[in-house]
Amino acid sequence: MKQVVQNYKSGELAVLDVPVPGCKPGGVLVRSAYSLISTGTELMKVSEAGMSMLGKARSRPDQVAKVMQSVATNGVPATYRKVMGKLDSYTPLGYSLCGVVEQVGAGIDDVKVGDLVACAGNEHALHAELNWVPKNLYAPVPDGLAPRHAAFGTVGSIALQGVRQGESQLGEVALVIGLGLIGQLVVQLLAASGVRVVGADPDPVRCELAERLGAAACGDPASAAVEAAVAELTGGHGVDQVYLAAGGGSNQPVELAARLCRDRGRVVDIGKCRLDLPWNAYYEKELDVRFSRSYGPGRYDPEYELEGRDYPIGYVRWTERRNLACFLDLLARGSVDVEPLVSHVADFDDAVETYQRLKDGDLKAVAVLFRYPGQTVETAAPEVAVPAVPARPSTARAAKTPVRLAFIGAGNYATSMLLPHLAQREGVELSTVVTTTALSAANAQRKFGFAEATTDLDAVLGDKSIDAVFVVTRHSSHAELTRRALLAGKTVFVEKPLALTEDELAGVLAAVEESGNDRIQVGFNRRFAPLLQEAKKRFGVRTGPASLRYLVNAGRLQHGSWYLQQGTEGTRFAGEGGHFIDTASWLLGADPVSVYAVATTGNEDLQVVLRYPDGSTATLSYVTTGAPGFPKETLDLVADGKVLRLDDFVRASVYDSGRKRWVSSRLPKARDKGQNAELAAFIKAVRTGGPMPVPLESLVATTAATLAVQAGLAGGAPVSLARTR
């Protein structure tokens, strides 16, 4: 079999052919599927190996002390031979992987051949095709968790043990110094525990990534931003805990920890940074300094790790193995997301080149995975269900005039893009606005003339005089509010997205089936834009398959935007991507059958390829790193010797056989993206009882395709959109 090794004397890295390890009692033989490079710990070892002998000695004073003790005991010649023999040997790399059990040793009854397991340990979870792993250093992978994500189990356990040492409590504020791989995981674990997190790292890309993964604020530790964020979140008292997840030789992290920690706060060292504690600062605040030892209790205990002797749960709740299993469970339930941390996936055969690129700085990465050849992991093709729309009795009724509307939510989009079009519309009465805060409801009532303002949602849904309800709240509440409004017999206009999960989508359709009410419109307004409608008409009927390219220059989010709260509100694409999928499907006249998605480091820029039944394809480039002055949306549709081009809803054109056929007049700066026409079509459907502007089947298909993007990023393969019956 092949294994990655390094000669610590010369610094040479190699992939060697070595014997297959035997399957000893008390453990299992595991064939690797994915292993994770720790860009902190492992790169430190790789860098040290490339140093001179003097450099090695300076970087490892602990080892120098051992050498000096050996000299005193055994003399210089014997010590020299011992040290040089050890240095001039190949040593393994790696300590976190996921693979398939290939053989089960005596005494093992919790897994069987073919099971997927996550493995830990710098002697047992190596970058090698096969590893023998003792019982307490592996854990079964929960159903549905991708192997590439389970490979994070060990580093996740390190982060989890650090958080446990901090003894965080709901409502506390924590500072994480160092936003590398471990720091990013600590941020997510704290946020999932109800702790508000401030991150500190000199790399702005890592700061932005941490904010997207749950941090309240992040910044350069040398700037005033971190201190200001801590002061704001803590009322000037300082954070409850500081987690040192940084490396290097600077003493800045421990000094910053002392400055920003509250009186009698806790400082937890997880990484390997310099720890020259400023005595006065730590003494005056009586700071509690704690160390987090690797993956948890059991680490470095040979009776636990090698002999499989567990600690009783009544005495040691979270052991090394229980931490590993807990982190895998958090991954499986979506409480922690490691996909945005994956910077690069390399074939195992390219291991040496990958390490060299990391060492030289050519490959900037938070986490890098090795993918192994010939793995026997049986993974079905990723699939997202497109639920069948229930058979619906014709329950639509014509509304009296005026049509009475209620709004649930009155945020920026509702007050800037919807209500101005409705407030002066003939035949429409703004009946009631309901919000979670009394003042926002009162403001909407004053500005737009609602008859009533309230915070009582049940009263609105129970008011039989209200014909239609607009759901314009945060994304996480859309599906549930839509479901309740349908069951109450209301026609519903819900802003995108309709749902953030497959279960939420199924819940909406269950309400349709239960109530017989299918009167839903999702705010996919671009298909109603007059300019795009005219361009489609000019393009004419299509006979052959088409290629569509849609570039969305979404730009950076402002600091503090709730769109960054991915744990509760879904990803940014989940919230906005349905617009562009709906537009593509409307132009192509069909619903997609598969989705393939790839992303740059940190999932900042997405490339989404949609495939349609007739062979047409649509490529959506959803980017956040472009120039702010470039137009937000540009679209090209190519088929049958013709090209349709849309320039950000300002100008459109259609070309035929290389000759410009039609070009629209340039519109004024106020782009019409179709909201007014969409609302007119919705009000007409409510008033007349006629068909909804967009068939429910299309809304469901677009929502399923949007959900498939995240599934595709996680699985790294095309996702089939399977129609259910």
Automatic annotation (TrEMBL):
Gene3D superfamilies: Dihydrodipicolinate Reductase, domain 2, Medium-chain alcohol dehydrogenases, catalytic domain, NAD(P)-binding Rossmann-like Domain. Residues 50-367 form the Enoyl reductase (ER) domain. SMART domains: PKS_ER. InterPro entries: ADH-like_C, ER, Gfo/Idh/MocA-like_OxRdtase_N, GFO_IDH_MocA-like_dom, GroES-like_sf, NAD(P)-bd_dom_sf. Keywords: Metal-binding, Oxidoreductase, Zinc. The keyword Metal-binding applies. Its cofactor is Zn(2+). It comes from the Bacteria. Belongs to the zinc-containing alcohol dehydrogenase family. PANTHER family: D-GULOSIDE 3-DEHYDROGENASE (PTHR43350:SF19), NAD-DEPENDENT ALCOHOL DEHYDROGENASE (PTHR43350). This is Bi-domain-containing oxidoreductase. The lineage of its organism: Bacteria, Bacillati, Actinomycetota, Actinomycetes, Kitasatosporales.
